[in-house]
């Protein structure tokens, strides 16, 4: 029987803990397979405070954890992270003997603190990807995906991506049929399309009002449907193309082309969410030369198709579904 240890520690997020217990703790006799043996353990023999204002008590400790085949580390707020050396050493010990390590959301910071993500691809909530990369530069942080399987260590993005990774683990252990049956029981898709890029608020921040580029950035946003070659943009600023490109990157951190592309994708997202316009019309209104070009760039930057994005985020569709419910 495969043993799963779910770790609880100070300021843990109850949602990811609940995902782990829902998937790995509940017995599933209707599936016809021997399910996991799962327990919740904590570093110390005391109630563990959660972020939701209540505490968790468990009779299981790190002594029990080091015997498990899979260890799951739910999330916490990284700024509140206070992980003991004893816990980090226990994680290194179970890793050294070949146990599978799994983090949900910002639980990746615990694995990173133990050095177990060094040289590995890893995921965490999009809001914390930059901070994880900054704090642990040896970690190859992937900000776009829902989860990463790097062999012995698996990491997921934010919140609901814990469900995606948990079902993926079940699929690895028991096969697609069992994982799909479990997903139906949980009333969730067995495999979501795209990555967490589709959930990121991707509009680039505006520059301060006094910045010299504020006016031209606003002008660029208002003319997304037009051709905006760098010579036209430089002329707006009364600069040479080379000077404009250099100062644009210094002020925004990217090139004029990439900035425009990002803004056009943001415009397309807004139209997909709020209108019933065709993909061809949205491509035109967002400044793309064709629907196919919109699809190419949308897939690359948002990690899903425009049509799939509309299915998930269109406000009219969501309202219609709610109104049709009894």
UniProtKB/TrEMBL annotation:
| Residue span, HTH araC/xylS-type domain | 214-312
State the organism of origin: Reticulibacter mediterranei
Which GO molecular-function terms appear in the entry? DNA-binding transcription factor activity; sequence-specific DNA binding
Q: Report what the protein is called.
A: AraC family transcriptional regulator
List UniProt keywords, sorted A-Z.
DNA-binding, Transcription, Transcription regulation
Q: Which SUPFAM superfamilies match?
A: Class I glutamine amidotransferase-like, Homeodomain-like
Which PANTHER family would you find in this protein's record? ARAC-FAMILY TRANSCRIPTIONAL REGULATOR (PTHR43130), HTH-TYPE TRANSCRIPTIONAL REGULATOR RV1931C (PTHR43130:SF3)
> What lineage does the source organism belong to?
Bacteria, Bacillati, Chloroflexota, Ktedonobacteria, Ktedonobacterales
Q: InterPro entries in the record, alphabetically?
A: Class_I_gatase-like, DJ-1/PfpI, Homeodomain-like_sf, HTH_AraC, HTH_AraC-typ_CS, INH-QAR
- Amino-acid biosynthesis listed as a keyword: no
Cited PROSITE patterns: HTH_ARAC_FAMILY_1, HTH_ARAC_FAMILY_2
């Amino acid at each position: 029987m495969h043993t799963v240890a779910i770790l609880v520690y100070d300021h843990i997020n109850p949602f990811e803990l609940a995902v782990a217990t829902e998937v790995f703790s509940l017995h599933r006799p209707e599936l016809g397979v021997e399910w996991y043996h799962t327990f919740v353990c904590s570093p110390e023999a005391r109630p563990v405070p959660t972020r939701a204002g209540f505490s968790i008590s468990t009779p299981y400790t790190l002594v029990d954890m080091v015997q498990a085949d899979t260890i799951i580390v739910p999330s916490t707020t990284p700024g509140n992270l206070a992980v003991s050396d004893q816990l980090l050493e226990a994680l290194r010990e179970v890793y050294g003997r070949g146990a599978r390590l799994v983090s949900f959301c910002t639980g990746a910071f615990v694995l990173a603190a133990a050095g177990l993500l060094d040289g590995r691809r890893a995921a965490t909530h999009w809001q914390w990807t930059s901070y994880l990369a900054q704090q642990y530069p040896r970690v190859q942080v992937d900000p776009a995906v829902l989860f990463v399987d790097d062999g012995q260590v698996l990491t997921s993005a934010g919140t609901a991506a814990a469900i995606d990774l948990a079902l993926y683990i079940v699929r690895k252990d028991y096969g697609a049929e069992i994982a799909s049956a479990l997903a139906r029981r949980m009333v969730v898709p067995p495999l979501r399309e795209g990555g967490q890029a589709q959930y990121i608020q991707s509009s680039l921040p505006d520059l301060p009002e006094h910045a010299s580029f504020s006016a031209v950035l606003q002008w660029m946003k208002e003319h997304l449907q037009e051709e905006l070659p760098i010579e036209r943009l430089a002329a707006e600023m009364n600069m040479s193309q080379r000077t404009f490109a250099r100062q644009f990157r210094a002020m925004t951190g990217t090139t004029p082309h990439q900035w425009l592309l990002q803004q056009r994708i943001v415009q397309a997202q807004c139209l997909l969410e709020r209108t019933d316009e065709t993909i061809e019309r949205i491509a035109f209104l967002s400044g793309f030369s064709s629907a196919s070009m919109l699809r190419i760039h949308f897939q690359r930057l948002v990690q899903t198709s425009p049509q799939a994005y509309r299915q998930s985020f269109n406000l009219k569709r969501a309202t219609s579904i709610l109104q049709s419910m009894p």
